[in-house]
Amino acid sequence: MSDEDPNEELYFNLPRGIEEKEIGMAIAAGNNRLALEIARDTAEKICRAKGTVTSDDVRRHLRLKPSDVRDSQNWIGSIFRTKTFVWTGDRIKSTIIRNHAAEIKVWRLKF
């Protein structure tokens, strides 16, 4: 099995994986510009009020329930992809049941 064989179901290529992630996030964000703008504004307000913010905080504030449709809310991963926010270096476990306690990043406003 070759690391570069695109015909293989499973192969390892970190740069390709990063590229695919970037493409997917750009498509998801582009298709949901208004929702993304509202979510970013909300994230900034939360951050100003409490100092940090997570994607769970934004969902809670907007009362945005996780979707039953796979990949329908991938745009949420783009909320903090601006120069406005910076990762604190901390991660916490998501409290959204469907996230199975996955770790999410904690963000703050960039000074």
Explain this structure to me?
- With 111 residues, the protein is an alpha+beta fold.
- Helix content is 40%, strand content 14%.
- It contains three helices and two strands.
- The chain has a two-stranded antiparallel sheet with strand order 1-2.
- Helix 2 packs across helix 3.
- The radius of gyration is 16 Å and the shape is globular.
- It starts with 13 loop residues before the first helix and ends with a strand.
Features:
globular; alpha+beta; 111 residues; 2 strands; 3 helices; single chain; two-stranded antiparallel sheet
Mean pLDDT: 80
What helical percentage do the residues reach?
25-40%
The low-confidence runs, each spanning 5 or more residues with pLDDT under 50, are none
The helix count comes to 3
Structural class: alpha+beta
